[in-house]
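for the writeup, i need someone to sanity check this before i put it in the appendix. the sequnce is what the collaborator sent (i think, or maybe the updated version? ugh). structure was predicted straight from it, no edits. if anything looks off just tell me and ill rerun, i have time this weekend
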Amino acid sequence: MGAVTVGDSDVWAGHPGPWTEEEFMALPESRWVELVDGSLLVNPSPGTVHQTWARRLANLLEAAAPTTLDVLEAVNVRIIRGRIRIPDVVVTREQLDLKLLEGCRALLVVEVVSPGSGRRDRDEKAIDYAMAGIPWYLVVEPDDSGRPAFWLRRLEVERYVDHARASCGQTMQFPDVGAEIDPAQLERRHT
């Protein structure tokens, strides 16, 4: 098989049976393809608000985090063998140059909810991240007025429980990361 791109329909349609982790990792780099139990989940590229919120949050976390932590955007995180998710932001305990990060190395994962991804981000991914043993899970979601809001959840006996919520004008403490962030800091700057 020659060079393959994510948009090459022959690769998707002609693949025999479930995808293995090795086949998935051999694909060209793509930010929005996940492997879940032998199936490839191809997600559309997120919109500009999603990308802005994720990048600004990563920058704020990185500025506050100790040098022993690394803040990454859109990296492959192995939940279990054959299940690889791509959180919007990951805070990891070790600074590594890897193509695949083991979930147990992550301290915090972040999902920025986009239209149509709410159930998957809030529920399905929470189950996976808990399975991987990731201590903290943050969901960033627009409130009723479209402004960013935070829902921080902590791992407790193999599932996440609500830890804290913050709306614009309130600050949230990020345990183990050393950050204190107001969701309003993710919004577009006005001149």
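The chain has four helices and 13 strands. Confidence is low (pLDDT under 50) at residues 1-10.
thx in advance!!
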